[in-house]
Specification:
The protein is α/β, with parallel strands linked by helices. Helix content is 52%, strand content 8%. Strand 3, helix 6 and strand 4 form a beta-alpha-beta unit.
């Protein structure tokens, strides 16, 4: 059975390692000067060489070749480690051996001297998976191990390791590999395996691997099994579900020209071609990031791994797009990646992201001015003894007269109410992007809506906690501003407890205060200047 490429091409000496120069140089100096620590902690993303370096270190400690040539990869000890039959190299998977009993067994055996080499080397992979009791059992052994024992702990999540363990190790942080480093190494593998590959294809694999060499080699292995002697960019894109870079650039061009219809047609074409919308969204975010870097720095030093024609397209787009527009588009397409994982219409999150990236900046821009002109009143929370449905008083629901005078005379109509009810989730997504996660979660607990004249009532059921979050003046002002911008008309929000929301349905007009003697100035004006007569009111004056 054929061996997987990532195992076949695993680095066996320090010279074969790709990247991680800071780790290699330090370990070589320690070996040369005889100052190898008793415990190391290798942390970093998956597939960046942590376990490979640990094995090479075990080879170097037990190699029988002259010191300058260690590890030689030829002596019996080095060969045994390469073939996985070295008794003094103990590899432990902490993900499946994480109990205190497993560590106690290790602690009992560590005192025995090595059977073949000079040192017993323990490699504990995914060490953060150990239980708290297991860490405590390991602590003393790790602090004062026998002179013939060395420990290498590897993890992708160092923040989960107790500080007492970290303080007893020399820590090395492995970095993600760059796209040129991965592409160069893949090129060497392709040549050695007797294949050919387009440089653009290897670069695409490097970008898809996101700094992980093992993932890159595994994807290359898949491409070499395709049945062709040459690895092409088209093959890589098909395997990844990606689309060509021109389609991504075309969508960004659509945003710069604010051509919504063309963008929707492009997305529909991608669906018909069977492209992965999630991968496409990743590519759009990556492309927009390049545009953002060009806008912020003015040069292409940070995107040198991209083809020249792509960089030139980004430069042109960076000149046509404003920085706020770019940032808003990145946020929208970034949020759409999670939303694309499910749903009745799988392409809908991507289409909404496109529309809001084009129109969102213009619709959200006047929010601050609109909010400043509005005074969003806060309905006081009802006591537990109060009925679940209560009509708010005028003082609770209406803003002061000065704010009422600045309002638009356009009331909420049935179309606006229907839009809110049928597209409520769309509005909550806007809240999610513009406000905190707490506010978004609180708005999602609204049980009922009711509409008045430029007033919307939110009913929170019996959830007093989320009611209080939204009814904070600054939060209510922000949510009201977002809703106003979304509907295209200014409005206020009132928060209520109970299962049914009740909003005032009549407009309240303000009049000048009556005189202290009870005379109404309007009545006085009508009688004096318009010769009106004051008729008695039977119910008030008792006249029959």
């Amino acid at each position: 059975m054929a061996q997987a490429l990532y195992r076949k091409w695993r680095s066996q000496t320090f010279d074969e390692l790709v990247g991680q120069e800071h780790v290699i140089q330090t370990l070589r100096n320690a070996l040369r000067e005889g100052r190898v620590a008793h415990a190391y902690l290798f942390s970093g993303p998956r597939g960046t060489g942590k376990t490979s370096v640990a094995r090479i270190l075990a080879k170097a400690l037990n190699c029988t070749a002259p010191e300058a040539a260690r590890p030689c990869n030829e002596c019996p000890t080095c060969v045994a480690i390469t073939e996985g039959r070295m008794l003094d190299l103990i590899e432990i998977d902490a993900a499946s051996n994480n109990s205190v009993d497993d560590v106690r067994e290790l602690r009992d055996k560590v005192s025995f001297r090595p059977s073949e080499g000079r040192y017993k080397v323990y490699i504990i992979d995914e060490v953060h998976m150990l239980s708290p009791s297991a860490f405590n059992a390991l602590l003393k052994t790790l602090e004062e191990p026998p002179p013939h024992a060395r420990f290498v702990l590897a993890t992708t999540e160092p923040h989960k390791i107790p500080a007492t363990i970290i303080s007893r190790c020399q820590r090395f942080d492995f970095r993600r590999l760059s796209v040129p480093e991965i592409a160069h190494h893949l090129s060497e593998i392709v040549t050695a395996e007797g294949f050919t590959a387009e440089p653009e294809a290897l670069a695409a694999i490097g970008r898809a691997a996101q700094g992980c060499m093992r993932d890159a080699i595994s994807l290359l292995d898949q491409m070499l099994s395709y049945g062709s002697d040459a690895v092409t960019l088209t093959q890589v894109q098909q395997a990844l579900g990606a689309v060509n870079a021109q389609a991504v650039a075309s969508l960004v061009d659509v945003i710069t020209h604010r051509d919504t219809a063309a963008g929707l047609r492009l997305i529909q074409q991608l669906i018909l071609e069977g492209a992965s919308l999630t991968e496409f969204c990743h590519q759009v975010v990556e492309h927009l990031r390049g545009v953002m870097l060009l806008q912020m720095t003015g040069n292409a030093d940070l995107i040198t791994d991209l083809p020249t024609e792509t960089v030139e397209q980004m430069k042109a787009q960076a000149e046509r797009m404003t920085q706020p527009m770019t940032l808003h588009a990145i946020r929208r397409f970034g949020a759409a990646i999670d939303d694309l994982k499910g749903g009745y219409q799988p392409q809908l999150p991507l289409e909404l992201a496109l529309i809001e990236a084009i129109q969102g900046e213009r619709s959200l821009a006047p929010v601050a001015a609109t909010v400043g002109a509005m005074a969003a009143p806060v309905a006081p929370p009802l006591s537990s003894a109060a009925p679940s449905v209560a009509l708010p008083t005028v003082a609770e629901t209406l803003p002061p007269p000065q704010a009422a005078e600045t309002r638009s005379a356009q009331p909420l109509d049935e179309a606006a109410a229907q839009k809110i009810r049928t597209r409520w989730k769309e509005f909550t997504q806007i809240v999610r992007q513009q406000c905190s996660q707490q506010v978004w979660a609180a708005v999602n607990t609204v049980r009922d809506l009711d509409f008045g004249d430029n007033v919307i009532a939110f009913a929170f059921g019996n959830n007093q906690f989320t009611h209080d979050i939204v009814s904070k003046p600054e939060t209510l002002e922000r949510v009201a501003g977002l809703l106003s911008a979304w509907l295209g008309r200014p409005l206020t929000i009132i928060c209520q407890m109970g299962e049914q929301a009740v909003a005032p349905k009549t407009k309240i007009t303000t009049t000048a205060p009556a005189r202290q003697n009870g005379e109404d100035p309007l009545v006085t004006y009508a009688m004096a200047d318009l010769h009106a007569e004051l008729l008695p009111n039977p119910e008030v004056d008792g006249v029959t």
